[in-house]
Amino acid sequence: MWSEWSSYMDAICHRPGTQIRTRTYADKRAAMAAHCTEHLEQQQQCTLEYIPKAVHRPSYPCCACDEAKFQFTFQGLWSKQSYPKDWLPEHLHWFDIIGAVHNEEYSCNDIYIYLETNSYSRVSVLDLCLPNCTWLDNYEELHHPIDAGTDIGIQYDGPKRPENSHKPIAPIVSSNITDNRSSFYGNQPPPFAKLNIKRIMVQDVAYNDLSCPMATWSECSVTCGRNGIRRRTRTLLSNHRAVDQHRCQSLPLEETQPCYLNLCRM
After folding, report:
1. Which domains are delineated in the chain?
2. 221-225-226-231 Cα dihedral, nearest 10 degrees
3. In this predicted model, what pLDDT tens digit does every residue of 2-28 receive, in sequence order?
4. Which are the contacts of 132, defined by CB distance < 8 A and separation ≥ 6?
């Protein structure tokens, strides 16, 4: 049975990249005895235009007028069946998930999950606010092993020594591994983790006059009498896209009140 397609590799804008999926024999001894020759790996071209509409580096401020609550679900796919070579003892475990919610002006280390093999699973600067001023409904991302670049070693639990100069964090690509002793030698490693983000609630934001002040009151609409109306307004300068799409219904932009003047002379 085929695994799920991998995440997009080497895809930039509309330049094609590659996706990979793999499968393994349920009974390897029987398959070898029968001289099975079926392909255990498939590749296909892909471009970024098919990626769900979430972006990792937003180029626009969020214009949503409401707030959203999301549920993050992390599923570890690392198992003896998916990674049989050099399978680690039972003490294998994931470290705690580290993450943060922040605006586009804040910069911090990437969100990642660490596995005790010098490998990472991470999501970097994921924007859940869409250009049309709504929130992403659902997002799923498959994670493949990433080399942390801090140690030199061949196998998970084999001897290691520190890198003299730390290398950039980079995906582990089996075609770049020539040592058959490596735990990742052979077919491209399947996903070892999956992250699902699901929107579970959207709620209006309560604005107040201190954070969004109104302009001063206008002149009364009449020059005398008790049937006058005066108005005051405010404008959303940074959320103009939301205003154009009528998505700021909970934020009143105009207020009116009666005004009373001296009785009109007959």
Report:
1. 1-51 (2.20.100), 52-203 (no CATH), 206-266 (2.20.100.10)
2. 10
3. 555 554 444 333 344 556 666 665 665
4. 241, 245
